[in-house]
Design brief:
Number of strands: 0
Distance between the termini: 36 Å
Number of domains: 1
Order of helices and strands: HHH
Number of helices: 3
Strand content: under 5%
């Protein structure tokens, strides 16, 4: 779980940097909120279903990719 917690914290720090003008900003905000709740649970030692954790991490990376592609255009 420690590795997943680090991944979530990394993604949180990057997702908060997405410009408000970005097309993915609204979605990123929602994903960040869900990630923050998940991080709180993990830090308190409460269980988080593995499939939820994987889905959240995948969503974070997908949004970062979309934001980067948007920036390149």
């Amino acid at each position: 779980m420690d590795d997943n917690l680090r991944k979530l914290q990394f993604l949180l720090s990057r997702l908060e940097r997405i410009s408000a003008d970005s097309v993915v900003a609204h979605r990123a905000s929602g994903v960040r909120g869900a990630m923050l709740r998940m991080v709180e649970k993990l830090e308190k030692g409460r269980p988080v279903p593995g499939h939820d954790l994987r889905r959240m991490i995948e969503s974070g990376y997908t949004l970062l990719k979309k934001a980067a592609e948007e920036k390149v255009r």
